Sequence to fold (497 residues):
Amino acid sequence: MSDDHKSLNQIIDFRKEKLTKLRDAGVEPYPQKYEPTHFSADILGDFDNLEKKDVTIAGRIMSMRKMGKASFFHIQDQQGKIQVFIRRDDVGEDNYANFKLLDMGDFVGVNGYVFKTKMGEISIHANELTVLCKSIRPLPVVKEKEGETFDAFADKEQRYRNRHLDLIVNPEVKDTFVKRAKIIKGLRDHLDNMGFLEVETPALQPLYGGANARPFITHHNALDQQLYLRIADELYLKRLIIGGIDRVYEIAKDFRNEGMDRNHNPEFTMLEFYWAYADFEDNMNLVEDMIRSVAESIGALQLKWGDMDVDLSKPFERLPILDLLKEATGEDLTEATDEQMQSICKANHVDVEDNANYGQMLDALMSELVEPKLVQPTFITDYPKAISPLAKKHRNGNPHLVERFELFIGGAEFANAFTELNDPIDQRERFESQARLAEEGDDEAHPVDENFLEAVECGMPPTGGVGIGVDRLVMLFTENVSIKDVILFPAMRREEQ
Fold:
């Protein structure tokens, strides 16, 4: 056993001894309830009105200066920290002795009056102290002096694995998740105000679909049936369009059994919405208005994302994908064969598998040569049909193109949208084409969904659909460059024991 491990066990044993002493003194260290009247921020922000007034607050002890007959400590609640002054003569000898048994990390309730110390710090002079929770395990040690933090709990992997500790000792982290909640509410409000209906669709599905991705597979014992965690909400939401709900959306967890990096987590949050009688142009306008509106509501129109300056206040640019790729490669890729695509990838130093298909190679060229340059908000439009199995053929008459857009900001994709395919004959042909790709080894190809095809055969009105990555949007608006910083409990590799 290491010295560090021994030391931790000794600390835990020592705290358990203090717990026993508190109980022996008649103190219940885990009471059922406490009723604060104020938060720390209320007191700090309204000192002029609260000076010398009685207040009751509760929180976790974050620092202590124990002295003979009087001590100072700071407690942290959900709105911040405030100093408490406690004196033996005010609380009594027994209660002060019990206070001496407390440690950093313990929860206490304090009743007392508000005052300002000789050093000018707004504080609470305790008349009564109540133990609310005795902590057994110590917190990471974080030292502060004159507003500067030392020995911060900064190891990112440990912070992600122990988000409770991260929130305790790095309380500013909470601001990201408060802002996340406001962002999601803003998206919801925008769609609600336009008459969209929020719904819930199955996370466990008999057949995955709505995207090109590798699913998670599970087994339902009672049904004795293989099921999939959804990779998208799309096909269920479009069934609701078919059923007569003309404006519908869902904010949901999706799951994709793929790699992880700073932009991808296997479990993530998506907003998908479908709008009957609208097309991808209508939805481009909606998405631009919605993103700008939400950004404005939280003061995030001008952002610093990594080393990039992003401005959401200006009109979003709109550019066809094949025009951008022609500019990047010098080649027209509209009707390129797989062999030609391999040569173009090689000439541009873009690595692809020997058996990669047209869509995979086009995506690789886009990722390497174009996307990193798309810093300001840009809609990329008019995608090849080969990589868009659920989008309608382009009205411009080009048989190789569909009505689709993707939104890129800061070199990353934020939204994917189509004028939805509602021709059941064309839809079946697209699914069958995807099935052939699956037979050739593409494990992200879209399966043939007969139930969905039957629904489309009942008739689906012209429809525009959009999917927006909520986590990535939160990353942008909070200026975080890793998805792990905007998900409370991101997926992590199991720690070696």
